[in-house]
Amino acid sequence: MPEVVTTVAELRQAIARLRPARIGMVPTMGALHAGHVSLVTAAREQCDHVVVSIFVNPTQFAPNEDFDAYPRTLEADLARLGEMAAIVFAPTAREMYPDGFATTITVGGPSAGLETDFRPHFFAGVATVVAKLLLAASPDIAVFGEKDYQQLLVVRRLARDLALPARIIGAPTLREPDGLALSSRNAYLSPPQRQIAGRLNVILKEAIIRARQGNLWAAEDAATRALLDSGFDSVDYVAIRDAESLAEIHDRRRPMRILAAAKIGKTRLIDNMAV
Ligand code: AMP
User: Fold this and answer.
1) Residue 121 backbone phi and psi in degrees, to 5
2) Which of 171, 199, 226 marks a domain boundary?
3) Which residues, at least 6 apart from 68, have a Cβ–Cβ distance to it below 8 Å?
4) Which of 44, 128, 131, 192 sits a CA distance of 20 to 30 A from 157?
């Protein structure tokens, strides 16, 4: 079982004891699934020891979002990590946001549009907590999932701009047999909703084929309609963007990425793929 620490001071002491070994960090909100474990495995491939942080970060949720309902399963998470992680950092909100906390990091560039259009608070919350986690741990590398592709680009930008003490590594999305990206939020889905959720990745793959053959806007539009026809209640966006900047496409020879967010009932799912 990993050593569990709850304060920044304890985390620094625990990591200092492991040095000079190479340390990898995997920031998470817990409710760990095989997708999180794949990030830990990726970190282990490059490092001697892995630190997993488990913190449901209040500042990245809006008041109307699922902060209270978000699954919290620390005991099961520790059992799942077993010997794979040396340290789990599971701070309280008070530890991460001490009384009078008044600092927020905003990242421009890749945070513009997409998630920000629907969750305007989100990336400032992510950037602030990720900066604090990386400054607390000073790992050699930190692994983030492509599942949250815009977040990965925002974190890369953040780490570069502030010279945070970690190299940022992106890891591929782990999926269920029907292609649904693993997510802690999949636990909210009823069996019929879970069926509908499985259509998202299929529709994105169809959109990629359409996009390669012709008009990008037509591919986005057809995917939006297909999601609604499949039973999604609303579609926040389906967008084909530059894979490195997330800017609108001007040059189709550059790498492109299709990204989507859609809701089934109250559950909001996101996914993305290389075009
Ligand atoms: P979360 O706990 O949802 O904040 O996710 C923690 C990290 O796990 C983030 O870097 C996510 O991108 C990553 N992650 C979430 N789901 C998956 C997945 N299905 N495959 C790979 N990584 C994932």
Assistant:
1) -80, -15
2) 171
3) none
4) 44
Does residue 36 carry a catalytic annotation? yes
- Is the torsion defined by CA of 223, 267, 157, 106 positive or negative? positive
Tell which atom from ligand 1 comes closest to the C-alpha of 174.
20
Nearest CA to ligand 1 atom 19: 182
Q: Whose CA is nearest to atom 14 of ligand 1?
A: 145
CA of 95 to the centre of ligand 1 (A): 23
d(CA 219, CA 203): 10
Q: How far apart are CA 85 and CA 59, in angstroms?
A: 26
Question: What's the angle, vertex CA 268, arms to CA 230 and CA 131, rounded to 5?
Answer: 145
Residues 32 and 68 in one domain: yes
What pLDDT, in 10s, does the model give residues 11-54?
A: 999 999 999 999 999 999 999 999 999 999 999 999 999 999 99
d(CA 158, CA 95): 22
Q: Strands of 234-242's sheet, edge to edge?
A: 234-242, 256-264, 267-274
Q: Which has the closest alpha carbon to 149: 256, 62, 58, 227?
A: 256
pTM above 0.90, yes or no: yes
Mark whether 109 and 244 lie in a shared domain.
Answer: no
Q: Which residues line ligand 1 (CB under 6 A)?
A: 28-29, 35-36, 38-39, 144-145, 147-148, 171, 173-174, 181-184
Burial status of residue 238 (CB atoms within 10 A of its CB: 0-12, 13-18, 19 or more): buried
